[in-house]
Write a structure and sequence with these properties.
2 domains, about 60% helix, binds NADPH dihydro-nicotinamide-adenine-dinucleotide phosphate, binds ligand LWWEY6Y5, binds magnesium ion, EC 1.1.1.86, magnesium
Amino acid sequence: MTDEFNTEIYYDDDADESHLETTTVAVLGYGSQGHAHAQNLDDSGVDVIVGLREDSSSRDAAEADGLEVATPVEAASRAEVVSVLVPDTVQPSVYADIESELDAGDTLQFAHGFNIHYNQIQPPEDVDVTMIAPKSPGHLVRRNYESGEGTPGLLAVYQDATGDAKERALAYAKGIGCTRAGVVETTFREETETDLFGEQAVLCGGIAELIKAGYDTLVDAGYSPEMAYFECLNEMKLIVDLMYEGGLGAMWDSVSDTAEYGGLSRGDAVIDDHARENMEEVLRQVQDGEFATEWVAENQANRPTYTQLRQAEKNHEIEDVGERLRALFAWAEEEETEDESVRMQADD
Ligand SMILES: NC(=O)C1=CN([C@@H]2O[C@H](COP(=O)(O)OP(=O)(O)OC[C@H]3O[C@@H](n4cnc5c(N)ncnc54)[C@H](OP(=O)(O)O)[C@@H]3O)[C@@H](O)[C@H]2O)C=CC1
Ligand SMILES: CC[C@](O)(C(C)=O)C(=O)O
Ligand SMILES: [Mg+2]
Ligand SMILES: [Mg+2]
């Protein structure tokens, strides 16, 4: 279906599950996305085999969830669709192991385009190369499927050797529940560059820095850490929930006129022209491959900078204050069970 934006959006009725009927799907990896794709496909009646290394710490979980587990090589050799859901940085080496198991007409399936777009994986010409990228953390892909909802996703076809690549990808999207919510067609390049930009400048990097800067400003001015935590971190969720439900408008409608005037008149003093120029620079590094080159080299060097940055983030005072405050409040207990899996993933 083409919507008013002229983008293709596909729903359940546009996807035909028979394209996976006589197909085995190998899901390589059983982490955030892997466990969700494997279980959702299995519940949708697709034949699934999970590919994990011999000593994998994920093996018990996959088997406990009732799934067959084999090595990545064996799983790929038995499957017609190989879904690569190990971390982006290990995909090239896992791919090197399974490449010889890909037969003509098989599908190599991704949830993010990094390794194809930046040429870290170069598949043979006779296989389909597709992407179904849920726009959500994997644990919500599973949770939304179980609750009967779906998770929006992106579809892209990089290589269509069979002429059937898109139909198979749509069947996969239906199997994991994405067509319930809607699947938008894009390209590997667009998905990769927007995803990297979004997580760096806005969703993960941008918001974490905004929260810490707000917290530090208040604490440095003599306000209590508890007040700073509630104001700058805890309430963020409630504000973002309103945006999620009804855009910025729903948020501005719900807050007081005082907050609305203050926010509208002062927000761009924080995210000013300089911050916007910095965002453009972040995007440039994504677009010209500078970030990708740096990230590949960082991994080859055993992640020295990543380890340092992670530690510094853990050491920020807001993490300690938050841990102690969350333990004291009733809402923490209620949300704990629901969010446990998400946090466990974040801790990995
Ligand atoms: N996280 C997310 O929500 C999102 C991720 N994506 C994309 O999905 C893909 C998967 O990401 P994500 O789910 O975060 O990955 P995870 O980090 O959660 O993957 C962990 C899984 O990969 C396995 N694994 C790790 N290293 C190796 C290795 N060297 N050899 C074999 N298996 C290994 C682990 O098994 P073991 O127990 O053996 O270590 C585990 O089962 C990526 O392309 C990512 O960009 C896309 C959208 C959102
Ligand atoms: C926002 C981070 C993400 O891009 C995602 C969950 O979509 C990721 O790579 O994990
Ligand atoms: Mg993303
Ligand atoms: Mg991402």
